[in-house]
TrEMBL record, chain A:
Species in which this protein is naturally found: Methylorubrum rhodesianum
Keywords: Cell membrane, Membrane, Transmembrane, Transmembrane helix, Transport
Pfam families in the record: BPD_transp_1
Chain ranges of the ABC transmembrane type-1 domain: 22-219
CDD domains: TM_PBP2
Record InterPro entries: AA_ABC_transptr_permease_3TM, ArtM/GltK/GlnP/TcyL/YhdX-like, MetI-like, MetI-like_sf
Bilayer topology term: Multi-pass membrane protein
Transmembrane annotation, as ranges: 23-46, 67-89, 95-116, 160-180, 200-219
Protein name stated in the entry: ABC transporter permease subunit
Family label: Belongs to the binding-protein-dependent transport system permease family. HisMQ subfamily.
Amino acid sequence: MFANFDFSVIGASLPYLFGQGMVFTLTLTALAATGGIVFGTLLAMMRLSSIPGLTHAAKLYVELMRSLPLVLVIFWFYFLVPYIGAWATGSATPIQVGAFSSALITFTLFEAAYFAEIMRAGIQSIPRGQTAAARALGMSYAQTMRLVVLPQALRNMLPLLLTQTIVLFQDTSLVYVLSLTDFLGAASKVAQRDGRLVEMYLFAALVYFAVCFTASLLVRRLQARTAIVR
Amino acid sequence: MTTDPMTSAPMTSAPVTSAPQPAAAGGSMIAIEAVSKWYGEFRVLSGCSTAVSRGEVVVVCGPSGSGKSTLLKCVNALETFQEGQITVDGTRVRDRATNLPRLRARVGMVFQHFELFPHLSVIDNLTLAPRKVLGRSKEAATKRGLDLLARVGLSAHAQKHPGQLSGGQQQRVAIARALAMDPVVMLFDEPTSALDPEMVGEVLDVMVELARDGMTMMVVTHEMGFARKVADRVVFMDRGEIVEDVAKDTFFDRPRSERAQQFLSKILAH
Ligand SMILES: Nc1ncnc2c1ncn2[C@@H]1O[C@H](COP(=O)(O)OP(=O)(O)OP(=O)(O)O)[C@@H](O)[C@H]1O
Ligand SMILES: [Mg+2]
């Protein structure tokens, strides 16, 4: 049935697909995951704080982000941020935000809601005695978190954080709505140009599968290795 | 260790069930004055008063739930209390102006479940707070940490992680970690009750030595052998009250309150 398919189109476009498309996808994934974990950790700390205002704000944020479709957030963010930026800086004209910055900020803010829930569970998994021991040694709240609680929480949650990052890796394909060219975008451009839709989309699916499958295998390996001996 | 006048002073005049003595003014390292604490409606501590002099070892005992841990945690402000005052080496604990982290840095605490930091090596457990809280250099903190490890007999384990050590070894590391801050007083909350019986001795030995070196200690424990050996005074608590606060020999030989007598007969029986 593949008789009139031409897979040579893939070979010819590899440099473009990977050199530009995949590099873009991986860059966006890495940056958004890093930002998302940092902001998500802050949200988790707010959520677990004893200050009601902070707790509620964090809860509201997380719930809101988790109940909106990502594609909608990307859209809204792209169209609204120039105006919000203008309002915030008191500028008369909309602030120019590039499509990439917009995508990066959106993914960071969106994924942070998911990372926040993971980090909240991670922080709660650390026995209270650890905090007591750190405080008893004279550490401040910030030192207790930074030196004792968060390193353990991160380590305990690493498999889940990486799994969420794999989801993020797949989600980045939504940047097509901003006319950005990620791996999938590059594949579909080639597909349209050469009229080889089936071949290219098959290939793209295979690549996504290979990357995600390998990554999950590595996560499982890691999980076995980093479990802290208590 | 010098004998403190308070230790040998006759206590017989104090009423058995009320707070036995006012906090000693000059020489006391810890002065606990009429401390009360509530969890909602529940009164965990009722008008507790006692004092620990410099170089003194006070053992706190009493039935489960009597408030021993709570009282100990009030001393280094890990718990708050609503009434009364605690003064540690001249610093008032219940005082807005008090810098609590700085106070805690001078009070060592050893927990029932060790609470070593499992993500750090043994030596890093010992140097973390001296570096980050006291601002010591890595070299100075490491040198002091290794000295202390030698003192508790664990030099060979500096690079291991806590999970690789036995319970008794972990608790000795925890004692060394507290000592690394050069505390003026050490608090122990049932330091041996989570240990397998064969490991209790090695931890008590370290504590006995510490007491002999003149460390001021407040020790919650049911190890009456330890109390007999090194305690100067015994504080007996029941239902949030300090029922007896007497010299060690008085407590063991002539406990006055019925509650203490019952407690002693139970604990010495098994
Ligand atoms: N956070 C809390 N909220 C409500 N009640 C508490 C809390 N912590 C402790 N309590 C109660 O306060 C009482 C005293 O507890 P505490 O831990 O000080 O007793 P303890 O003498 O150390 O007992 P044990 O020998 O079992 O360690 C107990 O009845 C306990 O249930
Ligand atoms: Mg207790």
